[in-house]
Here is the input.
Amino acid sequence: MKDIIYIKDLRVKTIIGIFDWERKVKQEVSIDMEFPFDCKKAAATDSIESTIDYKAICKGVIKFVEESSFQLQESLAEGIAALVKDKYKVESIKLRVSKPGALRGAKDVGLVIHR
Here is the structure.
């Protein structure tokens, strides 16, 4: 059984959307990430080298998202998942990306992917 390390509601501003105004104004996206990971060794050693460096992941994701310019949340999500898996050697990721306030009457709209 694996444990889960998670990052919840990471807020980043980026260019995202299909409408002309969305291509000019940065909008906030919310990102949740979950990584299955056996935390026993990290707990026993109390060493950052024995775990997933989630601060480094956050910094990398923030940089990627801030510098991106996707039309679709789906494309942004795939880019984030690929970055996290490739650069930070995460075995798998459950990723939620949403645009708060994007739809009238809805708190947010987004998607969840598992890679």
